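Researcher: Here's my situation. A collaborator sent me these components and asked whether they could plausibly form a single complex. I don't have experimental data yet, so a predicted model of the whole assembly would be a useful starting point for our discussion.
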Amino acid sequence: MNHSPTIGEYLIQRLRHHGVGHVFGIPGDYVLGFYELLHQSDLTLINTSDEQGAGFAADAYARLRGLGVICITYCVGGLKVANPVAGAFAERSPVVVISGAPGIGERVKDPLLHHKVRNFDTQRKVFEQITVATTVLDNPDTAYQEIDRVLHAAFRHKRPVYIELPRDCVNLCGPAGYQPIEFKNVSNEDALREAVAEAAAMLNNAKRPVILADIELHRFNLQRAAMQFIEKTNIPFASTILGKSVLDELHPLYLGVYEGAMGRDDTRQIVEESDCLLLLGNIFTDINLGIFTAELNLDCVISATAERITIRRHHYEEVTFEDFLLGLLHADIRQRPFDPPIVHNHVAPFEPKPDAPVTIARLFQQIDDFLADDTLVISDVGDALFGAADLHIHKRTEFLGPAYYASMGFSVPAAVGAQLANPKRRPLVLVGDGAFQMTGIELSTALRYHLNPIVVLLNNRGYGTERHMQDGPYNDLQPWRYSKLPELLGGGKGWEVRTEGELAKALEEARENTSTFSLVEVHLAPLDRSPALDRLAKRIQKRLAGQ
Amino acid sequence: MNHSPTIGEYLIQRLRHHGVGHVFGIPGDYVLGFYELLHQSDLTLINTSDEQGAGFAADAYARLRGLGVICITYCVGGLKVANPVAGAFAERSPVVVISGAPGIGERVKDPLLHHKVRNFDTQRKVFEQITVATTVLDNPDTAYQEIDRVLHAAFRHKRPVYIELPRDCVNLCGPAGYQPIEFKNVSNEDALREAVAEAAAMLNNAKRPVILADIELHRFNLQRAAMQFIEKTNIPFASTILGKSVLDELHPLYLGVYEGAMGRDDTRQIVEESDCLLLLGNIFTDINLGIFTAELNLDCVISATAERITIRRHHYEEVTFEDFLLGLLHADIRQRPFDPPIVHNHVAPFEPKPDAPVTIARLFQQIDDFLADDTLVISDVGDALFGAADLHIHKRTEFLGPAYYASMGFSVPAAVGAQLANPKRRPLVLVGDGAFQMTGIELSTALRYHLNPIVVLLNNRGYGTERHMQDGPYNDLQPWRYSKLPELLGGGKGWEVRTEGELAKALEEARENTSTFSLVEVHLAPLDRSPALDRLAKRIQKRLAGQ
């Protein structure tokens, strides 16, 4: 018997086909029918406390698994994820937003159904601004094709897409005999050959070439190819803060994180003095460029991204990132002598001074010492992010942080998504008290689904980054007793520490506590800051003053 | 010396002029300069835990004070309030969104500044969908006028507006000698006379006229006029659930809340059998109309709203709501004999059965008995809202609930905004466990600013309304120990109750606890529900099944 799947079934099939195992969200009446379908499928539903948490969780899941899914109800659910979806857009994370909606049959005469804002297409219009493709699955004849088109856009651009599913269409069947469309991007062969030859010649002529690796290497699954190229040519490499950990940070040719004047001087010097800089998958954001303190000589730059290939000041539009990198890998580029750069790159064993109050600078050294091979570091915004730049991440792509969009509240829900995406990694969350007050309550979700992230809460009693730009009572916070959170949630473990000795003990106990989340509150002086934040704050302060 | 105010100063002056005393939000670097200006002004800044909380708080503030203000940073702050602002749009609450933004001088060459999504106008385009007016204050020559135009739109439509303030424009001065523009809506005199005469004739000819009062009476400050009209004519009146409490519910001519088949039968019968129904400020939403079970005979209907006046099936476009109602008040409409309707409307004294488990139906009777003259009831979505329909609210506009947009998580942050808007009222929050897990943490804000709401948390262990439509594990929640929340936040008082006796005791203790918030968790059976929810769930279940 030849029976087409329903629209809802087809959507679930395609998500499974693309490797999705979990869907994040909160149900509502307009999406209940599809929730029941999800529940009966082999996808696992993850309920967060608030929809915002589902948004950040799906973003982290997408960064690790290649696709993440949020499923929520119309407007009151959908508009709550506008911010996380915008962050996924900015930082190139392929998140699929599936929103329930009033049935087409209910929309006749434009009635004021609950959850409606202005018109029935208001939510879609909002998402048009923050996604690369949108669709409303209101026509069974085209619904399969629309699903394929929109999911393809998510893969092509590594950015969010929006699918609206009117509740009376979930169980309609599409056309019989439909074959899923597999899209493929191909390069113009001649343009590819020309671009690779030009880049190869520049690299071969260079005396001090350097590679700067960024997040698109990860998004387009080209980390292995990049590492092969590095090992074939022995060209040293750095990363940006957004791209931190895309390549192994314990590799002898690794130079550290480059962030212009914000970053380490030794790394900066080697990168900026290079006579041929190969940028792989870079996004030129302000923070990536050290608030525009980066000084790169365009005469020496080759930049390859998903959008285009640029050599010096000219562009190749019809060459894909993947084809270009594989082309370089197989081109005739000479191997240099293996000559590891003189960059202080090893992890010094950390000796806690038992009674010394914890300082930011020493905290990151202590954390660095604590990292294990299975640790996935997830930073929130502020010094949790800037200070993390110098951590030594052991494996590929084991650092996540909203280093461009910089939305506070990312890290705790992201830890939920990340650990479900890769259960072999244990998240270590670095989060300030300000960000924790926004979304830290999503540890409830970690508890419910038996996840065991370790959360290190940097409590400097306020919005610390802002204190250094301009201070006032608006940078203060209600002083929570964070370590009591497990009592509210009914599980998990909490610690409150002030000294290096207490922190060492808490971290070890947290490592042993594998069955639930661990929350380690670290008291810090309000005006303590990392050297990186010190430099950043001074830059931003100047801009604030209009200089 | 003749010195114009800066753009930032002018904006603050106009907000003060319109009665604003508080601004809700969280700072970020793009808005820090304006925050400092706010801090130095006589406006009071209220920091919430998350921006979402600021959104709901400002919405409630706007409903009580006539204007509410959210001030947040670019995108990572602004997009977090998309949902509360959409709710304010749907339910006609004049909220002003002020967003910091990158300076105009920083935007040259379209750099990737942090917090940017797609283009510099992405956030504005999103807010165009969910507000009635937007502006970017990037030109000192027009900035004053733009502020006046946009604030006027908020007043004219009682809906949100959006003001974006690039950080390098805050301290620029506008033109000297500018006079603020006071806009005024005027009716066409002839159309007004015709409409009032026609309505007066219908009312005079009617045997059983009824008034149905809704929220626009409150938004346009016409409650006193409506009550004068009722007392002049002795026409009985009902309200909708969205408009609940706009007129005194202890008045002898009050009929109760009309919600079609969802509401009480005695109220429904009188309303539907009326031969002349005067609708004052009604929004015809599905929930207001009892999920379209309302049966109103259009031959008998006069409907006056801010958009237009409709009599039977024809419309007057050039007549304002205010002029029409004042016209009726002064028209020659006969006074009927004072004949209070036979509707069971008094509050029965509640006698708790000490050991009886609390049920939803009895809970609302107990709450009704507990209401004081200074109580402001704030309902969240679900049975907290539906069950609240039959509470007897003592004063005008002392009930707030998202009865149309129905966004979960409204109530706790709304209590913060409401009590700051009117410190003479003490909020009583009715909230389910699902909604509380979304935004209940904003009790932190109540604590910080010394507010004392009483929160009654209806814990039925999940999304109770949905269980009755379609149940699955996706309607379950992590079982928090809600009464421990004060230990996390560092203040407030908590109770956990199961019986009517325990609830009575907790409510009395909460009443005495005037210095902090009180959180009373009430355990309920998961499938217990109010009669109103019973009827609603059955209607929605039918729609879900496509019937």
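Model: Some features of this prediction you could bring to your collaborator: The two ends of chain A are 72 Å apart (CA to CA). The mean pLDDT of chain A is 92.
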